[in-house]
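Protocol step 4 of 5: obtain the predicted structure for the target chain.
Materials: sequence only (see below). No template structures provided, no constraints applied. The aim of this step is simply to have a reference model before the mutagenesis design in step 5. Sequence pasted as it appears in the construct record:
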Amino acid sequence: MKRRLTMFVAVVFALSMISAGIAVAAEKLKFAHVYEASEPYHKRMVETAEIIKKRTEGRYEIEVFPASSLGKEVDINQGLALGTVDMIYTGNLFAGRSFGPLAIAGAPYMFRDLDHWRKYTKSDLFEELGAGYTKATGNHIVAHNYYGQRHATSNKPLNACADMKNLKIRVPNAPLYMMFPKACEANPTPLAFAEVYLALQQGVVDAQENPLPTIKAKKFYEVQKFINLTGHISDSLLTIIGGPLWSRLSEKDRAIFIEELQASAERVSQD
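Step 4 output (structure tokens):
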């Protein structure tokens, strides 16, 4: 009897150790982006990370890295293939560096309004573009987050295209971001997002362009006198799962990730 009891206790102890081992062995994932921790994109993803952890019974722990802490936007896109990051927010134009046709969504004055943009994200056209991106990179676009209309800030009013002539304006490092400034004979200057405030403060550039919430979050109003409502690009952020992570996820876990990342994107788009 004592021997059976001893064996029973040993089995229970072993099972408890195995269970503890499973809990400890949760896979840690990195979600990277270039936006401030105060912005809704970051806050919503932190919430979503907790939801995914709960729904996967602790199999995945997602740490969200804001403010270019894991690299510039070009770097984190490259990191998806390298496996140095697992998921990212990125603009269409940066993803379009790997599959050119995808960048069309970031062209100037492409969308009339939010409803027009929403229809594009659910269209056969985007489905085709998304498939092309996956074929080219192995990564998967799983959600669209509305980023807002991009407006120019400057130290002089920009009331007409002619007012931008020779203006040195910072733009993200992707070709279509340069189209609007070039059309107005400005001098578009690519700079990493994390470097913009200092560049404006030191006069390296004269102007920049971003949606209003980002202008507020990055405090560009401290180093610029005017916000000019140019609305030249209706921008969005793609939520992308890297190919290495995608291949490791079970069908069940893929469904959970997609569902929760899309729900997060919808909340972001309404914020």
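Step 4 remarks: The mean pLDDT is 93. Residues 52 and 207 are 40 Å apart (CA to CA).
Proceed to step 5.
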